[in-house]
Amino acid sequence: MSLLESPIVAPVATPTAATQTVLPPDVSAADFDAAIQAMKQAIGADNVHVDVETVGPYYDAFPVTDDPTDFAPSGVAFPGSTEEVQSIVRIANQYLIPLHAFSTGRNLGYGGSAPRTAGTLLLDLGRRMNQVLEINPKYGYALVEPGVSYYDLYNAIQEKGYPLWIDAPDLAWGSVVGNTMDRGLGYTPYGDHGMWKSGLEIVLPDGDVLRTGMGGLPGNNTWQLFPASYGPQPDNLFVQSNYGIVTKMGIQLMLAPPDALTFQITFDHESDLQAIIDIMLPLRINMAPLQNVPVLRNIFLDAAQVSKRTDWYDGDGPIPAEVVERMKKELNLGYWNFYGTCYGPRPVIDTYIGMIEEAFSRIPGAKFYTTETRPQSPDDRGAHTLHDRHKINTGIPTTEEANVFHWIPNAGHFFFSPISAPEGADALRQFEMVKKRADEFKKDYCAQFVIGLREMHHISLLLYDTTDSAHRSEALNLVRTLIDEAAAVGYGEYRSHNILNDQIAATYSWNDNAQRRFNERIKDALDPNGILNPGKAGIWPARLRGRGL
Fold first, then answer.
1. What was the pLDDT predicted at 15?
2. What pLDDT sits at residue 510?
3. I need a surface site. Which of 66, 155, 184, 460 has the fewest CB within 10 A?
4. pLDDT tens across 159-202, in order?
5. Dist. CA 47–CA 24, nearest whole Å
């Protein structure tokens, strides 16, 4: 048994907080104080705070605006149970206090724990609701509260000695519930986290409680086994929305296979991208021989795991081509580097590895390695990501990807992540679009393509100095520009920072923004007082709609 400790948040600048309480819209100081006192009576005075010292750390650690009040919370509460969440929601309805619930607040690059609407009261569910309630080794599932991180779930499994794997994102310090409900991804064959959730307990905007799926049947033993039930299945309405607060979630887990082997294929040229993706698709779509969620990373993202930008170039603007060539040579990496893992009995693995190597060998200059043929060594920095991906792809949580925050001083990242078909022409078009704009705005193009079965996430991780006003403005303007350019040719974002919610929602404009209008109708029916996270994903309640908050 080997337990792992979740590390502290990566080295980022301390958020700048407002010097006094930012009140919610349309709420007087007297009503706000009355609401806070009622909440203290309901869940304990030690669990509700409005002082700057307690609330300040919940501001966005990666700000992209200069005004700290733009997404400022008014306070924070620490409920310890579903019943306490219900009590807070009912009080919030009485006084029109908006609430933003989160799990661990590690949603870096997407707003962290900060709310969309200034003056919102935070519900930190991770402080006291952090229990692994059940692990079932026979059927391979867990039932968890929102504060359970991937490290917590991993350690709970290890303590029991169960042959089960978690599926963690790149940075495993986050919440299992939070990542899943914000459409996060992992990299084992269970990488589509939304697909493997099964059974939610949700506090609705009026304080009522819903259990989805078989959880609606008293005495059932299939809540975490069969995500549907009878009639409509509403679970996905609560993903990336503001329709409820998830207080429990079932997550199905992969049974550990007999063996696993991770590979790395390096490709020398930027122009290899189209061929890489087109060769990859038939190997991936049937989950064999590419069994997991593979990633194609560029040289800057891999170099940032083991070095600083100034190790290579201390000038302003794009890193010159001759420096990129030196990076590739010294790290023994390509411009593109492809990572995946094969699972099963060793003869199966060897067969799949051979098929993959043969297919990609059609690209001139491709080099093939595995964790066995390229062992981890201080003398081979280019092997670092190969071995880190092996951990991630075999259910072991890590935070090695946080090394990227050392690339530039005071680094934060701002995401541009469009979806496309797993088509070589689309990958090349997106690459050229983002690289051109990143060069124009003097931001390094650190990126990876994450390949699902029939879609592809292009995760562009754009680094900037969080303490520099000009850098923040450049990062924001760069992504705003890319969102509109991508939408114009049919590429849409799947996840975003608070400040981009309305812009991205507006790009889904078919039939006079039918999706947004539908979402608003649901919001107004479930949450007529507009209490839960107004503005999340561009979904505003009627009383705040159109006010530009």
1. 67
2. 98
3. 66
4. 999 999 999 999 999 999 999 999 999 999 999 999 999 999 99
5. 20
Q: Report, as residue numbers or ranges, the catalytic residues.
A: 110, 494-495
**SS3 per-residue string spanning 112-174:** CCCCCCCCCEEEECCCCCCCEEEEECCCCEEEECCCCEHHHHHHHHHHHCCCEECCCCCCCCC
- The strand pair at 492-493 and 254-255 is best described as unpaired
Q: Which residue is associated with the tokens 């006010």?
A: 547
The secondary element (H helix, E strand) that includes residue 513 is helix 510-526
For the segment 359-378, the average pLDDT, to the nearest whole number, is 97
Please say whether the beta carbons of 416 and 433 come within 8 A: no
Task: Count CB-CB contacts under 10 A for residue 344.
Answer: 17
Q: Which two tokens stand for residue 32?
A: 């706000």
Rounded distance between C-alpha atoms, residue 423 and residue 430, angstroms: 11
Question: In the block, which residue shows the tokens 């733009």?
Answer: 70
**pLDDT tens digits along 98-133:** 999 999 888 899 999 999 999 999 999 999 999 999
Span 342-353, mean pLDDT?
98
Q: In this structure, is the dihedral angle defined by the CA atoms of residues 353, 358, 363 and 367, taken in order, positive or negative?
A: positive
AA identity, residue 479: V
418: helix, strand or coil: strand
pLDDT of residue 11: 45
The residues, any chain, with a CB within 8 Å of residue 137's CB and separated by 6 or more, are 160, 162, 163, 164
Give the residue among 404, 212, 428, 390 at the shortest CA–CA distance from 294: 390
pTM: 0.97
Phi, psi angle pair for 202, to nearest 5°:
-135, 130
Q: What is the 3-state secondary structure (H, E, C) of 341-355?
A: EEECCHHHHHHHHHH
Residues 6+ apart with CB under 8 A from 345: 258, 259
Q: Which helix (H) or strand (E) holds 426?
A: helix 424-440
Find, among 146, 76, 431, 154, the residue nearest to 270 by Cα: 431
pLDDT 10s digits, 302-311: 999 999 999 9
d(CA 86, CA 209) in angstroms, rounded, equals 8
Tell me what the pLDDT averaged over the chain comes to. 96
- Write the CA distances from 367 to 266, 329, 363, integer angstroms: 5, 13, 9
- Three-state DSSP class for residue 368: strand
What average pLDDT does range 432-459 have in this prediction? 97
Stated as kind and residue range, the H or E segment containing 197 is strand 197-203
